[in-house]
Amino acid sequence: MSMRWLRRAAIAGSLLAASASWAGCVDGSPLTGVNMAGAEFNSKRLPGTMYKDYVYPTAQDLGYFASKGATVIRLPFRWERAQLNLMGALDAAQMNAITKVVAAAAPLGLCVILDAHNYGTYHGKAIGSADVPKAAFHDFWTKMAQRFPDASQVAFGLMNEPKAMPIPQWAEVARGTVAALREAGADNLLLVGGGRWSGVHEWFKEFSGISNAQAFVDLSDPLGRTLIEVHQYANPGYSGTTTDCLAPSHFDRMFASISDWARANGHKLFLGEFGTPGTPECLATLDHLLTLVSNRDVWRGWAVWAAGRWWGSYPLSIHPKDGVDAPQMSVVSPYLGK
């Protein structure tokens, strides 16, 4: 065995030990990382076939981002795959796949946010409707908490972009779910997304007479372990579906306003989705967005959209290709938490 190999092994071991020291969803350390997309893919094929219609990340995928300094991955998945029938048992295959991700993340010091990527629905029916009662949503998350009780390793993102229901209806569902989880004894970190698309740009805009700022101002958690999750894309219209980007300064006022709101009302924020293509214009905006969420008194962290080995030529992909870093990584890496 060569001395060069031994030296590399020693360095790798030191890095692994150092990263593990950062482990913890609830220890107050910065949660900075990426969305690891794939398990939510092909939502029209439900439940679909694992590794044909959708994919979970590998230990290699996690290791790459941990080596860059990430401390968190947000793992989107579909509720319909995790629980095939409302109020029923959790699906064994999905739970095994998620468990493998959590197990691979643990020694790397990565907090795993389990993100129900359903837009406020189950098989297209809104939560809180006759078809999908609130109790079914509470049931799902309390069962997930029983399956993943280690609060140091796993956090729960209750619902991605709940656009299928009015803001006050989602706020009521979210409050009830936080209460149900705490009553069940779960002490995991919880992330509650704002209504509609959870956009920073419309946090104070009223829809049917109420804004996210009004609906979530009094969101409470007896453990103080709930973050308010917001999203913000950089293109005109804020959809994240085009390749042009607004100027960096365009975002100053909206981020200052939501930061002031969180500070005044005792909330902590998490930027759960944001991202840009790798053009020079967009990288400048991406860099500025990262500076805007670096204030630790109100921002607990962020997850860039998006990693995942099935993205192909997707412009916002931050996943390496053929061993080469994505252009966005040169901007993101200096802001990662480790």
TrEMBL record:
Residues 34-307 form the Glycoside hydrolase family domain. Keywords: Glycosidase, Hydrolase, Signal. Residues 1-23 form the signal peptide. It comes from Aromatoleum buckelii. Belongs to the glycosyl hydrolase 5 (cellulase A) family. It comes from the Bacteria. This is Cellulase family glycosylhydrolase. PANTHER family: ENDO-BETA-1,4-GLUCANASE A (PTHR34142), GLYCOSIDE HYDROLASE FAMILY 5 DOMAIN-CONTAINING PROTEIN (PTHR34142:SF1).
